[in-house]
Hints:
Radius of gyration: 20 Å
Largest sheet: 5 strands, parallel
Number of helices: 12
Structural class: alpha/beta
Strand order of the largest sheet: 2-1-3-4-5
Amino acid sequence: MACKVMIWFLVARLLLQILRIHAKVPAIIVFGDSSVDSGNNNHISTILKSNFEPYGRDFNGGQPTGRFSNGRVPTDFISEAFGIKPTIPAYLDPMYNISDFVTGVCFASAGTGYDNATSDVLSVIPLWEELENYKEYQKTLRVYLGVEEANDLVSEALYLISMGTNDFLENYYTALGRSTEYSVDEYQNFLIGLAQNFITTLHNLGARKISISGLPPMGCLPLERTRNLLFGEDCIEEYNNVAKDFNGQLLGLVTKLNRELTGIQLVLSNPYDILLQIIQNPSSFGFENAAIACCGTGLFEMSFMCNKRTPFTCSDASKYVFWDAFHPTERTNGIVADYVVKNSLSQFL
C-alpha cells in the first residue's frame, strides 16, 4: 500500500513538473496593497483587516479571507485567466505552505505603499519587508524544487505589482503627510524612484516578466466623494489628475527599464480608463450604483467600519461598482482583470 502511495506521489510530482515546463507563466507572484492583498494583514498587528463578515460573503464558501472585497481580487482572476488557479494564497497564512506557493503567492499588505512612511500610518507591512518575505520564499523554493528548477520558475513567473493609491490618499493628502516635505510633483518623482529601485531589485533577484499597475481614478472612490460633499459629491478632479500624471510617469519608467535591464519584459497595467468608464457609465456594464458602496451607507465604511452589524448593507453586491468606500466589488474586479489581461498581459499568455 505504501509503495502505491509513493508511486502516485511521484506521478503527481512529475505531472506538475510537466505542466510548469509547458506553461508560459507557471506562477503568479503578487506585491502591493489592499487592491491585491489576499489575507496577509490577518497575521500582523494592525487595525486594517477584513477577516470578518460581510467581507468575503460571495467568496467560495462565503468565508472572509482578508481580501478587501465581497469576493475575489483582480490578481485571483488574472491567475485563473492564465490557467493556473482561481485564487492566490497569502504568504503569511499558516494554512498554506511551499507546495501551495509554487504556482502563486501573495506578499501584499493592505495599507502599504512605495513610501515606507505610508506603511507606518496603519502599521502594515512595508514594501521592503514584502521583498524580504519574497527572498525567504526563494530560498524555500530552491530547497523544495532544487536550485535549477526553482530558478527557472522565478524567471518564468509573472510578477504583479499594485500600489500607490495609499501613498497619496492615506499619506500625502493627510494633515501630517508628505505634503509638508514635497510638492505633489516632487512626491511623484520620489515614488517613481522607489518603484524603479523595487523593480530593479526584483530583476536582480531573477524576475523577468513584471507588470506594474497604474493608479485608479482615486478621486472617484466613494470615500473621496464623501469628502467632497460641498461640491455635490462629484469626483475630486485634483486627485484624478494626479493619478493620470503619475500613470504617465510610470509609463516612462516602464520604457526606461525595458531599455536598461537585460531580458526584462515590463508592462504597465493601467486600470484608470476602464474604471472611469465603469464609474461614469455604470448601467452599460450592468451596474446600478457607482457613487456609493454596498456596505453600510456606502459613504465612508471600510475595514472594521464595514461589519455584519453595519445597517443598510446592500443585498446584491453585483449591482454596485464598489464594495466598501475604498474597494471595488468582486464583479468590478473581474471586469478590470479581464481588461488588464487582454490589454496589458496578453503577451505573457
